Structures are given as C-alpha cells and as structure tokens.
Amino acid sequence: MDSESSDTAPVEVRHLVQQWKRLDEVLAGLKKDDWTAATALPGWTVRDIVAHIAGTEHMLAGEPVPDIELPESAREYVHNPIGELNEKFVQEARSLAVEDAFSDFREVVAERTEQLAELSGVDLEAETDSPVGRVPYRRFMGVRVFDCWVHEDDIRQALGMKHHLGGDTGRFAVEEIVRALPRIVGNGAGAPDGSRVRFRVVGEDDADLPLATDVVVDGRARLADVDDAARTTVELVFDTATFVRATTGRITAEPGRGVEVSGDEDLGRAILGSLAFTI
C-alpha cells in the first residue's frame, strides 16, 4: 500500500497497516534471546505472540488452519474454540528458527497489506464472523488493530520496555475498551440503577492515552459524556498501562497500584474485579 493509497484507505485499514509497521520496528530491534521471553499470556513467549499475529493474517489471507493436535500442556490455558484456533498456528510455528518466524510475519503482513488495498467498498461492508460477532469486514479490521496494539504492549512488557500505547493508532484502538465499559459496569460489577461511574486515564507523554468518560446506569449501563456537575458514585483514575493491561486481562488492578478509587469503594472494587473483557 503506497502513501497515496493509505491516505484514501478506510481508517481501520490505515491504522492496521500502521500498527504492523510499529510491530515490525519493535521486532527488528530484538535480540535472539528476547524471542523466547515469557509474556503475560499463559504458555506464550514473544515468538508465540508473533506466530499468533501472523497466523491470524494467514487465515484471513485464505490459508487453512493447521490440522494438528494440540499438546496436553496447551489445555491448561486454551479454554475456547478461538483459543484453540490461535494455538494451532502457534504450535505449528514453534519449529521455525527466529529469523524464519520474523520473515513469515513480514511476508504475510505484506500480502495482507496488498489484499486490503484492493478491497472495494462492498467488500468492506460485507458481513463476516469475528471475535465480536458477525460484523462488517471493516469493523473486524478495527478489532485486528486492537489485537495487534495490545500484543505490541505484551512484547514490550515482557522485555521491560516502556509501553507505547499512545498516538493516533492507540487512540483508535482504545475505543474497543471504551465500548466495553458499560458491560463491565452493568453486567460484570452489577452497578445499581442511578450509578454514575467515571473512568479517567492519565498520562503526560506521547506513549500515554489520557481520556475520560462516564458510564451511567439507568435501566441499563451506557456511556455518557463527563459531567462535572453530576454526582459521581465512584471514580477510577488509571495510568495508561494499568488501564489497558487490566481490561485485557494481563493484570488484576488494585487500588494504589496504577489506579486510585474514590467514592463507593465497594462498587469500585467490584468494577476492578470485572475489568477483563477480552477472550
């Protein structure tokens, strides 16, 4: 996809291609031993995350899921059909040398970039299965942005690198989390009618993602603009990394450790215990 094409591509495609470039830059700077570092994802190393990303794109490029039996050890952390599909690509790639695993990532990303550049408006709006249900293809590509963005952070966290969750792609990707907040507050934490929960994410440099939104419960939980004149039941103030890593199930957020809770402490703790929403 050349610069002219990228300027006119749908926002989901532009951010996905940009996120792949960011991942490539990170991976190109790794030492060989870095690829075998354990990550926050059970059973997966850095190279397994790369294999997962590449495997998903191989599948979207039209290649079949590997026809292999998973080892018994994988059953300790594979708990659903999507997890099983992901693990088959990971297991198949474990026989590759690090250099070949990186080359495979680059090759399939290049192939997918070209495929995405050729999609018509009709193709982008066509309904397809995705981790968030049956949605237009462009919406699925937005989910791919989120997945790759989170996995870049998994790699950075595993290697002790500073997170880089900000920027235009980060602001786009974090909307997947924001969309999930009403479900977290209403279904997960069971916030009662009349509750108003404020989420703030703070940060002062380009790696961060400052944001603020309210969730109000009135029959059902829904997003609402921040209203400083309204009474807030509980407010949760996160640093960027804690917000992303807790909502994606990498860590369990606790008051005083990357998040501060003010107001209804019981509801606040219930929300913190319900943050993880990803598969």
Describe the fold and architecture.
By secondary structure, the chain is of the alpha/beta class. It has 2 domains: 11-161, dinb family like domain (Four Helix Bundle (Hemerythrin (Met), subunit A)); 169-273, SCP2 sterol-binding domain (Nonspecific Lipid-transfer Protein, Chain A), CATH 3.30.1050.10. It is built from 11 helices and 8 strands. It has helices at 3-8, 11-28, 46-60, 81-93, 98-117, 121-125, 137-158, 167-173, 175-188, 240-247, 265-272, and strands spanning 127-130, 133-136, 196-202, 211-218, 220-224, 234-239, 254-255, 258-263. The strands form 2 sheets. It has a 6-stranded mixed β-sheet with strand order 5-4-3-6-8-7. Helix 3 (46-60) runs parallel beside helix 5 (98-117). The protein is globular. Keywords: Isomerase. This is Maleylpyruvate isomerase family mycothiol-dependent enzyme. It comes from Dietzia cinnamea. It holds the Pfam family MDMPI_N. One of its GO terms (molecular function) is isomerase activity.
Structural class: alpha/beta
What coarse outline follows from CA principal-axis ratios?
globular
Low-pLDDT residue intervals, each spanning 5 or more residues: none
Global Rg: 20 Å
What's the CATH topology name of the largest domain? Four Helix Bundle (Hemerythrin (Met), subunit A)
